[in-house]
TrEMBL record:
Every NAD-dependent epimerase/dehydratase domain range: 7-214
InterPro entries reported in the protein's UniProt record: DUF1731, Epimerase_deHydtase, NAD(P)-bd_dom_sf, SDR39U1
DUF1731 domain residues: 251-297
Protein name from the UniProt record: DUF1731 domain-containing protein
Organism the protein comes from: Tetranychus urticae (Two-spotted spider mite)
């Protein structure tokens, strides 16, 4: 029997969102996706604003957001604005629809990123760390998270998942680096010593399902694996899973030329992020270490 009636997923057409839709289909009687493009099982952001939440919506998830690392888009003020509004305005639209609903959903889970924590070579961040927003990406994550705030009178449980780099074969970083690694041209970015917070797509989906089903879960969860690795260690694990060398470093300057210095910092810098609250709640990872995650993805 389905656990939930209707589940609504903003950004459910993307890499993470389509995996979430698949995961929720096993536990819900209906999954609806909010998208800018019409299609079966979809509603538009405009429909949501005009008509409010679909009937019997019990779970709402939002992972919508313009791809920051789209190599075809220059890092212009207009594109930066699009990166912000595609996250902040969609989350805000959902929060407003929840506030207006006569029958608010049980739970509202929104995506955020580990970019919430400014890059640092020594600090260790868990969900209780409260660093000030000091760069574009940490400010973006603060605004993204705050845009989903609900009033104290609203009974909906609110959860935020601050995700690390999501590893899966159909999208994200693996799709971008697969061919260079396959050709034996893979390797770390810059020094490779920067931290690389990561999570396997199955664990991220399971974390959303866990948060939806477990009424005790509230507030922020760091969507990262418990094993902290550097960019160099990730490259080594991926190369070894693909039986390829991974010694070819990609110079920082090349990334900066291609993406602009600010955007390149997402790859050339990193933060050490640990999932303290996730483990305290008793969540079990399928892929807690980078070797098993990489092997599963490329085989
Ligand atoms: N992949 C990762 O490693 C990773 C790590 C941490 C956080 N995240 C966050 O997780 C979210 C999903 O990532 P993803 O890898 O699944 O991205 P993706 O494959 O590019 O999917 C993005 C989704 O957002 C929607 N979208 C894109 N531009 C939009 C816009 N301007 N306005 C409204 N909706 C828009 C798209 O929906 P339609 O085109 O159907 O409207 C699509 O479903 C993003 O917010 C990303 O920042 C991802």
């Amino acid at each position: 029997m389905a656990k939930f009636s209707t589940v609504l997923i903003g950004g459910g057409t993307g890499f993470v969102g389509s995996h979430l839709a698949e995961g929720f289909r096993n536990v819900a009687s209906k999954v609806l996706v909010i998208s800018r493009m019409p299609g079966v099982g979809r509603i538009s952001w405009n429909d949501l604003q005009q008509k409010g939440l679909p009937e019997e919506t019990e779970v709402i998830v939002n992972v919508a957001g313009q791809n920051v690392l789209d190599p075809m888009r220059r890092w212009t003020p207009g594109f930066r604005q699009n990166v912000v509004s595609s996250r902040v305005l969609t989350t805000k639209t959902l929060a407003e629809a929840i506030e207006k609903s006569a029958k608010p959903p049980k739970v509202f889970i929104t995506m955020s990123g580990v970019g919430y924590y400014p890059p640092n070579e020594t600090a260790e961040y868990n969900e209780e760390s409260k660093p000030a927003a000091s760069d574009f990406f940490s400010k973006l994550c603060h605004d993204w998270e705050n845009s989903g705030n609900l009033s104290d009178q609203t009974p909906t449980r609110r959860v935020i998942i601050r995700s690390g780099v999501v590893l899966g074969s159909e999208g994200g970083i693996i799709q971008r680096v697969y061919i260079p690694f396959f050709l034996g041209l893979g390797g770390p970015i810059g020094s490779g010593n920067q931290f690389f917070p990561w999570i396997h797509i199955d664990d991220l989906v399971n974390m959303f399902l866990f948060a939806a089903s477990n009424e005790k879960v509230v507030g922020v969860l760091n969507g990262v694996a418990p094993q902290v690795v550097t960019n160099k260690e990730f490259s080594k694990a991926l190369g070894s899973a693909m039986f390829r060398p991974s010694f070819m470093p990609l110079p920082e300057k090349v990334i900066e030329l291609a993406f602009g210095k600010e955007r390149a910092s997402m790859m050339t810098e990193g933060q050490k992020v640990v999932p303290k609250r996730v483990l305290d709640y008793g969540f079990n990872y399928k892929f807690p270490d980078i070797e098993s995650a990489c092997k599963n993805i490329v085989n």
